[in-house]
Amino acid sequence: MRSLRFLSLLALALSATLRAADAPASEPVPKVDYVSVFNGKDLTGWKDAKDNKFWKVVDGVLVGENDEKLKGNMLYTEKAYGDVVISLECRFSGEIDSGIMVRRDKAGKKDMQMQIGVSRSLKKDMTCTYYVGKYPEAGFAPKVEKLWKKDAWNQIVFRAKGDTYTVWLNGEQVSQLTDPAYPTPYAIGLQIHGGLKMKVEYRNIQVAELK
Length: 211
Known about the structure:
Layout: H1 2-22, E1 35-36, E2 55-58, E3 61-66, E4 73-81, E5 84-92, E6 97-104, E7 111-119, E8 124-125, E9 130-131, H2 144-147, E10 154-161, E11 164-169, E12 172-178, E13 186-192, E14 198-209
Antiparallel strand pairs: 1-14, 2-3, 3-14, 4-13, 5-10, 5-14, 6-7, 6-13, 7-8, 7-9, 10-11, 11-12
């Protein structure tokens, strides 16, 4: 009986070791040369910014708001990016549904999205995970629950490099996903989901193009 118990424990230990070996090693936050894409004064450098009722700048902060009666909105940079690192600070309270978009599929129609806030389809917080028509389990971010500072500023770094997408939250890597379906350079987008009363804030929005 003891031998069987020992063998069972050994098998569990080996299984855990193999899983750890298969998991990608965490990387430090990339050190890159950033360029600001938000001047803290107005929406210069962003598409469809004039008379945009969803977005405004208040005290150096980009504020996105919506209510139950309005459709959603996407605010895109005027410039398109391929391989890129995006760094920004985000703050929200209550139930929101936002996200950061980067690149598009081969048809040039669908964005790669990194979710911020509650998924309307899953009805749970999926911050720092990836939405590609669904939420692939390989890109889940279980550490976010402990790392996210409620009602405070949080730093998000989102890197798109080749087919691999990586997110760091407050200095720690929280998710990574490899998906070859989004190779097309496109503008960086910030989302406000439709039909939801919400408020999300962004500041210190910077990007670094990877060569």
